[in-house]
Amino acid sequence: MGHYQFRLPDIGEGVVEAEITAWHVKPGDRVREDQPLLDVMTDKATVDMSSPVEGLVTAIHGAVGSKAPVGSVLVDLDVAETGQKPAEAARTDPQPPEPPVPNFEPTASPATRRQAQEWGIELGHVTGTGPGGRVLIEDLERYREGRDKTHHPQPQHKVEEIPIQGLRRRIAERMAESKRTIPHFSYVEEFDLTELDSLRADLNAGRSEERPKLTLLPFFMRAVARLVAEFPNINAHFDAQAGILKRFSAVHIGIATQTPNGLMVPVVRHAETRDLWDLASELARVTAHARDGSASRDLLTGSTITLTSLGALGGIAATPIINPPEVAILGPNKLAERPMVVGGVLTCRKVMNLSASFNHGVIDGHEAASFIQRLKRLMEHPALIFMD
After folding, report:
1. E strand or H helix at 341, and its extent?
2. Would you call 294 helix, strand, or coil by DSSP?
């Protein structure tokens, strides 16, 4: 049949290049039709590339971590039924160096010989640098210093170089772009969630087996969705080049999720139409797909505002980085019991700090603070979340 070149196909949605994240074949491998050849990563999703033909791999193009433009050749295949796998080139292992041969007839002065005897040095093992190979006192000192280092080796400190590639590199690029192009304004407020956490525990205790266990995130999602009509600039994208703020009535909430392959942001779509239990179910579904690597591109795109939570590792406060082109990101921190004065009485309450960042180019500080204060009121008086 002849020679076949497998090229990077047009993956769609304006993608002009992809990063090679893994090779599954090497030159000399015979591949079947539909056998995976390599994995590539676009903006957010990893895609496996399969062979459309059966044949023998004669060459692969591009190292892991390199980027290939659409249409470029990735694999050369010989689709003719000929030949065996190329034999490996013979390898010749280098011969180990011969051990040093002692000089059994060294020349040295009587003083040098006495010094060698005091230091326990065999003159035959010392390389002399004097005339005719004569061993000098300096030669003994060098030999003694090297011997002592051998007997008392210094600790070896290794430097490990790990290439930043694939999803990890894409995350680094997006975060750097966000900090470079977006004037971040961060705001931290304290939320007393004692009553909300009590409601959550009560709802979980009475839930049916078909319903998921509630965390705090569905309450935050429900409250954010309620506030969009009042603060439309928060649920938006900003096109800096065109100078246009795109405000959305639909609330598509990105959930920053840690996965074995790095941070991903699956999306809970139309949060404004979902009740608390539906939000919890969809939250569990999309994050599970992100963690097991089965999330589609559609599941990882289109968010209008992002929630990022470290759960029990949340700490006291953070400075979340905005997920462009969004203009706001909310970061619930750790929920903990703290002493508070309520009505003149010192008591213990369940308190959480909420860290938020806003694009200060389009969101004024007053608007951002007003939004957080309204969110605080809903979360501290959870019945308001469910009132029309």
Report:
1. strand 336-342
2. coil
Is 275 considered catalytic here? Answer: no
Q: Among 202, 239, 364, 381, which one carries the catalytic annotation?
A: 364
d(CA 318, CA 380): 21
DSSP 25: -
pLDDT in tens, 286-328: 999 999 989 888 899 999 999 998 777 778 899 999 999 999 9
Say if CB 10 and CB 55 are below 8 A apart. no
3-state secondary structure of 332: strand
Residues of the chain with CATH 3.30.559.10: 184-386
For 42, what's the count of Cα atoms within 13 Å in the CB-facing half-sphere? 19
298 as an active site residue: the answer is no
Provide the whole-model pTM.
Answer: 0.67
What fold characterizes domain 184-386?
Chloramphenicol Acetyltransferase (3.30.559)
**What are the residue ranges of CATH 2.40.50.100 in the chain?**
3-78
Name the packing angle between helices 365-380 and 194-205 (round to 10°).
Answer: 50
Selection from 68-82, 138-152, 293-307 with the highest mean pLDDT: 293-307
**328 sits in which H/E element:** strand 328-332
Nearest-angstrom CA–CA distance, 253 and 267: 6
Catalytic choice (197, 360, 381, 388): 360
Give the C-alpha separation, 70 to 68, whole Å. Answer: 7
DSSP reduced 3-state for 249: coil
Closest of 154, 147, 107 to residue 128, by C-alpha = 107
- What is the full DSSP assignment across 44-99? S-EEEEE-SS-EEEEEE---TT-EEETT-EEEEEE-SS---PPPPPP--PPPPPPP
Does residue 229 contact residue 248 with C-beta atoms inside 8 Å? no
Under a CB-based contact definition with an 8 Å cutoff, are residues 280 and 211 in contact? yes
- CATH number for the domain running over 3-78: 2.40.50.100
Contact between 217 and 307 (Cβ < 8 Å): yes
Alpha helices in 120-216 (DSSP H): 137-151, 166-181, 194-205
**Residue 373 CB-density burial (10 A; 0-12 exposed, 13-18 middle, 19+ buried):** exposed
- Say if residues 136 and 129 touch (Cβ distance below 8 Å): yes
